[in-house]
UniProtKB/TrEMBL annotation:
GO terms for molecular function: hydrolase activity. Residues 39-84 are annotated as: Disordered. Residues 39-66 have a biased composition (Low complexity). Pfam families: Esterase_PHB (PF10503). It comes from Pigmentiphaga litoralis. One of its GO terms (cellular component) is extracellular region. This is Poly(Hydroxyalkanoate) depolymerase family esterase. Keywords: Hydrolase, Signal. InterPro entries: AB_hydrolase_fold (IPR029058), Esterase_phb (IPR010126), Plant_Biomass_Hydrol_Est (IPR050955).
Amino acid sequence: MARKSRSLTRLMLDAATGIARLQRRAMKLATSTATKTAAANAKALKASTPRPTTTKTGTGKTSALTPPASPRKRGAAGAGAAALGSGTLSQGTLARSPLQRSVRRPVPAAPVAAAATGTWVAGVFSTPPMQGELIGRLDYFVYLPSSRPAVGLPLIVMLHGCSQSASDLAAGTRMNRLAEREGFAVLYPQQSRGAQSHRCWRWFQPEAGVGAAEADAIANLADSVTQQYRLDPERRYVAGMSAGAGMAALVALRHAHRFAAVGMHSGAVVGAASSTSAGLSTMRRGTLRDPLSLLAGVLGANTRPGRLEDDAALPALILQGMRDPVVAPRNAEQLTKQFLHVNGMDGETPVTAELAVATPDAYRRLDYRRGSKTVVRVCEIAQLDHAWAGGDPAHRFHARRGPDASALLWRFFRSHRREGATAE
């Protein structure tokens, strides 16, 4: 009986030893497999990640590279309540200063704007804290064409819409390809998710610590880029799409002495909103108030209420899709009234032309002229909804329909110059 008990015990011990040995082998195999998988993933990630070339430019450092392609998505920029929200800016100053030192790898971006061959530079703009004022710490991208030296080139500041990035706008508008051909630089500031969760520029909160602070930071960034690359301060322009159009208007009105013209694609009437809900209402319906009465709250210190100084006319191009379900076409009518007033042209009759008739690109152009110069131009694009006209539909918020909005902007901008402007 004792012999049987010892045999059974030995058998159980042998079985336990075998099980333990199998468990150790399984663990070793699992660890080896995980290690190989992790190594393979790391190798693939390294192969797919571009290597930035760090270069010194001016007083700071930036990373120049050709970023990877962005995902293909479609939608309506700024559509619905998710398009607007609240956020706060970090403490700092709005003092004008050169670019601060910044070395960074940018967020994944579209290839240097639709096969353009120039230099794509990424960086962060910030200024040192002073007097406790609010400022935006802005990511930014700059495109410099290879077709000619940067010195003396015009600059277009391009502002994206809600739920977009700077690189989305660059790729979808093909603005860099145009810049390469025509010879101008492009600056793409990018709203941070920390300031606004959907990356909306806060045009709908124009008070000093929010929208005005963002507008001032963008203007200061444009000054710094102008100084750094020795661009032409008399030929600086600002444009945007949707929320970017709202911010472009705010930047231009607050800093009319710094910009030669402004372009607004699918933008809301200026000054009608002071909150998220009011911003959504304005986009959908325009304003029930007199649009001219709204200007005093957004004009900069260099202006008197309601109108810019006589030597600070602000040429404006307004583009609007007539099928836009997000920003009602009524907004374009009210923006037109505002910018006619800003330029001292109340009640002027436009010169009207119907272009590309009976095609998907059909649009109506209204030119308000002072002498031979078009000061305010409106393009009503018949079959366009809430998207950049004539853009690359592979990218979010851009449509094939309509005239090439990028080309329209440049043709309008290049006929205007801000005489005597400097990079402050």
